[in-house]
Design brief:
With 207 residues, the protein is mostly beta strands. Helix content is 14%, strand content 37%. The protein has a single domain, classed as Fumarylacetoacetate hydrolase, domain 2. It has four helices and 15 strands. Strands 2-1-12-6-7-9-3 form a seven-stranded mixed β-sheet. A five-stranded mixed β-sheet has the order 4-15-14-10-11, with no helix packed on it. A three-stranded antiparallel β-sheet has the order 8-5-13. It is globular and about 45 Å long. The structure holds zinc ion. The site of zinc ion has 7 residues, from loops.
Length: 207
């Protein structure tokens, strides 16, 4: 079951310097935003489907921020008060389509490409969150919110200058270094200590 029904999913690209470098990119001087459709949402334990059109589907373990109160043109203090909680997110991406298209809507928009869970947890310090990604039990990514280029409140404030953030909206705060491919039969886990573990199996074929 999907633990959250956001009206929108706002994602941030290249918010960890080491991840930008591993893909041959520079760190942007302002947050680079894109959106994932709510139809991509997937609950804990549900199956990520590899679309036949892509030969390179990759995991991106991320810290998800759930909005607690409406934010519009928030300052940093207001943005911090607007944090409702945190959740593990996997920003599943067709890396080949992302490179080919330039725009990221197709590469990141397939059904099942936004697993999140296991639950929303509030009351944690946004400065001290850690995110760990494992594939088949092997650790592939580990970073903390202190490694982000733009902090969580600064991201929320920046986004709220563009679009009103409603309670329940989800901000995926970018992935650290170590992204890599997913294959049929894999199990991918994203863990935020204090929040829990999001685990999803991977299968070939469209739903
Ligand atoms: Zn991402």
């Amino acid at each position: 079951m999907i633990p959250l029904t956001p009206s929108k999913i706002v994602c941030v690209g290249r918010n960890y310097a080491a991840h930008a470098r591993e893909l041959g990119n520079t760190v942007p001087d302002l947050p680079m935003l894109f959106l994932k459709p709510p139809s991509a949402l997937l609950g804990p334990g549900e199956t990520i489907r590899l679309p036949a059109v892509s030969a390179q589907v990759e995991f991106e373990g991320e810290i998800g921020v759930v909005i607690g109160k409406r934010l519009w043109r928030a300052d940093l203090a207001g943005a911090e008060r607007g944090i409702g909680g945190f959740i593990c997110v996997n920003d599943v991406t067709c890396r080949d389509l992302q490179k080919r298209d330039g725009q990221w809507g197709r590469a990141k928009g397939f059904d099942t490409f936004c697993p999140l869970g296991p639950r929303v947890v509030g009351g944690l310090d946004w400065r001290a969150l850690e995110v760990v990604t494992r594939v088949n039990g092997v650790e592939r990514q580990r970073a903390t919110s202190a490694d982000m280029v733009v902090s969580i409140p600064a991201l929320l404030a920046f986004v709220s200058e563009i679009m009103t953030l409603e309670p329940g909206d989800l901000i995926a705060t970018g992935t650290p270094a170590g992204t890599g491919p997913l294959a049929h039969g894999d199990v991918v886990e994203v863990e935020i200590p204090g929040v829990g573990v999001l685990s999803n199996p991977v299968r070939e074929g469209d739903r």
